[in-house]
Amino acid sequence: MEQIREMADKLKLLSDYTRLTILSLLKDREFCVCELVEILEISQPAVSQHLRKLKSQGMVKESKRGQWVYYSLHVDDKSYIKAVLDYTPDSKTILSVLNKQHVTSVCK
Amino acid sequence: MEQIREMADKLKLLSDYTRLTILSLLKDREFCVCELVEILEISQPAVSQHLRKLKSQGMVKESKRGQWVYYSLHVDDKSYIKAVLDYTPDSKTILSVLNKQHVTSVCK
DNA sequence: ATATCATATAAACATTCGCTTATATATCAC
DNA sequence: GTGATATATAAGCGAATGTTTATATGATAT
């Protein structure tokens, strides 16, 4: 059942708090790495590694602009991934709960 | 973000091939442990442990009848769990691909 | 009661995972 | 150029995961 195996692999990406939060944030707009670092309060390499996994499965796209790399959601509207993300809180709620409304891509 | 943490925990249950297959089979009807063992070709304790995890998160129900324990799906129709399971193959397809159409609860 | 079948639990183990620190690469400002 | 900022990669580590084997529990049949 290769189909189930593939789904399980993608769901594994969704089954981590940090990655599920990143994807939920990206529902609203693109974020650069340094913003995610400030919001999630984990190290920059940790964020980069999560983004790499998400990118390797085609769930996010990157766009380099200047010294920043912006990541955006890249999920088919009709996929089960999108179906799951429809249930996660939106970025405004997340930022408000985490008290990070002020974070912008001008990071340091 | 406790909501995201809870979702991630439940998605973790879906992100394993064996468990996702079990849940997909249960979309159609209840199965007993010994059937799942034959279908999945892993040890009986492995199946039991997966079922225990699924039960602990309320995703399956058990029903003891005689020496058999039957498990059935216990997922809210409107949840994201159900949304995911709508994308997995149905039991007939799974059994056919795995060549296990013959398996019944009279196991040995 | 004994033997058999179905299931659950415990222990052990290899693998995977997510994190950190350290380091490398690349861009920008001066 | 040099220094500061943004990001990626590598190595190391402890925790979690999924499996197996061994054992326990419980129901059924004889």
TrEMBL record, chains A, B:
It comes from the Bacteria. SUPFAM superfamilies: Winged helix' DNA-binding domain. GO terms for molecular function: DNA binding; DNA-binding transcription factor activity. Keywords: DNA-binding, Transcription, Transcription regulation. Pfam families: HTH_5. PROSITE patterns: HTH_ARSR_2. Residues 1-92 form the HTH arsR-type domain. NCBIfam families: HTH_metalloreg. PANTHER family: ARSENICAL RESISTANCE OPERON REPRESSOR, TRANSCRIPTIONAL REGULATOR, ARSR FAMILY. This is ArsR family transcriptional regulator.
